[in-house]
Amino acid sequence: MGEYDKSQETRHLREVHTYVLRAGRMTEAQKRDYAIHSARWCLPFQETILNFTDIFENTNPVTVEIGFGMGKATAEIAANNPDKNYLGLEVHRAGVGRLLGEIERRGLTNVRIIEFDALEVLSCMVPDGSLSAVHVFFPDPWPKKRHHKRRMMIRPRTDLIASKLAPGGYVYMATDWEPYGEEAWMELAMTEGLKSKYEGFAPRQAWRPETRFEQKGKAASHDIYELMFEKLPREG
């Protein structure tokens, strides 16, 4: 494991979960798809660095999506970009089951899933400098001040994410919670090696499908805030 795993500050934040496991019910279809297809498309968590070429059987660029929810946007993006690979990280089994169903229904071969804490997966399994992108669509904003430490897009979590990006790669986030968007922009701006592609928030990205959380936000009259930060080339 890399230097971030040895950092006391990062280890502390990894111990503070960015999610809450809820006892949500799975539909019969989700249970069936999980039982039938998880062995093929899901990777077990282990403290071993992944070889993406072996996993995807090609050398196409890899995008990690942190917390894909029910996976609809993940599947649509993967279907629209067959020349790219996607690794989805999610802790809720209902969403995993739903995405597995989408993979089979659409005949996708460029998606893999790890059902585990994203920070642990990044720390233990993803090679440094290996990703073309990291997507974070509508993460839990943890609005109460005492819960802000649970937010995904704060340092040193953003340092860990940046360390996994290849030069020229990007981290992209969308949120309907303006205070979180503003905080995340500042945290990413202060993350070594990252620079915003835009002066402030990014414009609406046409390639990103609308998610269920986005629909809920719009129904509550929330604006959508998008951030895109690129990994700077190595110096020297």
Task: Describe the structure in your own words.
- The protein is an alpha/beta fold and 236 residues long.
- It has one domain: Rossmann fold.
- The protein is 38% helix and 18% strand.
- It contains ten helices and seven strands.
- The chain has helices at residues 3-6, 8-15, 28-41, 52-56, 72-80, 93-106, 118-124, 157-164, 178-189, 212-219, and strands at 62-66, 85-89, 111-114, 131-137, 165-175, 194-196, 225-231.
- The protein has a seven-stranded mixed sheet, sandwiched between helices.
- Helix 3 crosses helix 6 and helix 5 runs parallel beside helix 6.
- The longest helix is centred in the first third of the chain and has 14 residues, at 28-41.
Mean pLDDT, to the nearest integer, reads: 91
Count of discrete structural domains? 1
The CATH homologous superfamily is named Vaccinia Virus protein VP39
Oligomeric description of these chains: single chain
The best one-word shape is globular
Tally of separate helices? 10
The description of the largest β-sheet is: 7 strands, mixed
Number of separate strands? 7
Q: Distance between the terminal alpha carbons, to the nearest Å?
A: 25 Å
- Helix coverage percent: 25-40%
DSSP strand (E) fraction?
15-25%
Q: Order of strands side by side in the largest beta sheet? A: 3-2-1-4-5-7-6
**What radius of gyration results from the CA coordinates?**
17 Å
Top-tier CATH class: Alpha Beta
Class by alpha and beta content: alpha/beta
CATH topology: Rossmann fold
Order of helices and strands: HHHHEHEHEHEHEHEHE
Q: Would you identify the regions where 5 or more consecutive residues have pLDDT less than 50?
A: 1-6
| CATH architecture tag | 3-Layer(aba) Sandwich
